[in-house]
Design goal:
Length: 91
Amino acid sequence: MEGLAVADASVILVAENTGESLLANDKGLIEVARSHGVDCWWVTTLLLDRTKNGEVTAEEATDILYDLVNEGMNLRPRVYTQVEKKLRELG
């Protein structure tokens, strides 16, 4: 599937076949998934959405974001600070 790793292609196929949304933090993966009609969410978008809806507090979402980045999730510093700022505003 368009030069993707087998695991990434498999995730897209599962989402496509089940109609489930795909949660990812990989621009290439999301672009390919969307080209196949798969609904995709960025991890940061999910955190902001769940905070806006009151499902998690701004503090919890910030901790989750920190933990994800600390464990190796790639996130540009600019994006990290923008999301963190928005979470503070929601808190």
